[in-house]
Amino acid sequence: MTLIKSISGIRGTIGGVPNDNLTPLDTVKFAAAYGTWLKNQSGSDASADKKYKVVIGRDARISGEMIQNLVVYTLVGLGIDVIDLGLSTTPTVEIAVPLEKADGGIILTASHNPKQWNALKLLNAKGEFLNAAEGTKILDLAEKEDFVFSEVDDLGVVTVNDSYIDIHIDEVLSLSLVDKEVIKAAKFKVVVDGVNSTGGIAIPKLLEALGVEVVKLYCDPTGHFPHNPEPLKEHLGDISKLVVAEKADFGIVVDPDVDRLAFISNDGEMFGEEYTLVACADYVLGKTKGNTVSNLSSSRALRDITEKHGGTYEAAAVGEVNVVAKMKATKAIIGGEGNGGIIYPESHYGRDALVGTALFLMLMAERGGTVKELRDSYPAYFMGKKKLELTPGLDVDGILKAMEKKYKNENITTIDGVKIDFPENWVHLRKSNTEPIIRIYTEAKSQAEADRLGERIIGEIKEVAGV
């Protein structure tokens, strides 16, 4: 059983002992810390008169209703009004915050984690994730339990609004690069795996609004995930078979909170999560000149596609908040993460599987051909992911510094660990914040080459560390 406190929120397994798991006591404490932080933003004088408002939404996991009630009524106890979206998606809550002119938002989801997990993901008034400094303040407030609750006449009010998935879909349909009639004319047939969460509500609704024939698989939002909810190849045998059996154009897979998007090609093979962003960027850059951003551990294929369209690609440190900051700094017109997260600023600065789905449908409708043919047209890269466990007490930072020095004549990036860009491949070394582990990500033009590079770097780290 686990409880993980970080700058982006709190997540853990349901049940067990307070401070070791995500219990009702931990939930209330961190909701109170967030609400208190929110009220402190204007200073004590201004906050005494101001009425604060927070948007809350959740995925369909079994513990969601319990966690939601705890969070909602903790905020009410702080005198904060709540807009309760009920079953929702992460990007839907992100869109709702500015539309409601709210002061913040909380999404109750553990993303791709299994059903025993849940989490509080925290947003600012723009509907974007908090930065490190803001997250640290909330953790400090939670640690000190420095809360003052409201008297009876000053309690917050709860307003239920279950229309926001429809509002979100309308927002997607109104994007300048999305043309409902073009998609409808293509007569697509698509299989959707909603992993029995809110993607099973949102994605079919969007597809039907775009005139797409939908075959539903695991779209009943019960929270009983039929397979591991992380959208990886080893978990997606059922939809891969169904796409072929239904002679569908492709399949769509989302995680429980619908911010990650993966496609199954018409032949039942994975399109590749890394290539979700590549394909969407290919479409957007073909219509609008501009720059792109992904994180350091994402595929080089985005750089290739960006440069093909005359744009500039830059890499950010791992983490959505870092990608968003880099996108704003470089005025990127599309970006995201290699885990299937599409960030399209014309909509909002958050990973959004609904936006990604619409952009991908536009690409396929205009280009024609099959999804397999599209995938085959992109640069072929293969990734390897390994980790090296080191003896406690070893200087992990010193080891990374030594690797940086060893490859000083290569293209080195040190904003997040050490990334070494070789002409034909790359390796990214990141340390764990909680244990003596170095994670080793590699990419090359064949799986064998990516794996060999990873093993070579592991050997060199061991040599440097003297283990």
UniProtKB/TrEMBL annotation:
Molecular function as annotated in GO: magnesium ion binding; phosphoglucosamine mutase activity; phosphomannomutase activity
Enzyme class, first EC level, given as a word: isomerase
Cofactor(s) in the UniProt record: Mg(2+)
UniProt KW Nucleotide-binding keyword: no
Gene3D superfamilies: Alpha-D-Glucose-1,6-Bisphosphate, subunit A, domain 3, Alpha-D-phosphohexomutase, C-terminal domain
One Pfam match: PGM_PMM_III
GO BP terms: carbohydrate metabolic process; peptidoglycan biosynthetic process; UDP-N-acetylglucosamine biosynthetic process
Alpha-D-phosphohexomutase C-terminal domain residues: 400-458
Keyword vocabulary terms for this entry: Isomerase, Magnesium, Metal-binding, Phosphoprotein
InterPro entries: A-D-PHexomutase_a/b/a-I (IPR005844), A-D-PHexomutase_a/b/a-I/II/III (IPR016055), A-D-PHexomutase_a/b/a-II (IPR005845), A-D-PHexomutase_a/b/a-III (IPR005846), A-D-PHexomutase_C (IPR005843), A-D-PHexomutase_C_sf (IPR036900), A-D-PHexomutase_CS (IPR016066), Alpha-D-phosphohexomutase_SF (IPR005841)
Signal peptide boundaries: none
Alpha-D-phosphohexomutase alpha/beta/alpha domain location: 8-147, 176-268, 275-380
EC number, UniProt record: 5.4.2.10
GO cellular component, one term: cytosol
Similarity remark: Belongs to the phosphohexose mutase family.
NCBIfam families: Arch_GlmM
Protein name: Phosphoglucosamine mutase
Organism of origin: Cerina litoralis
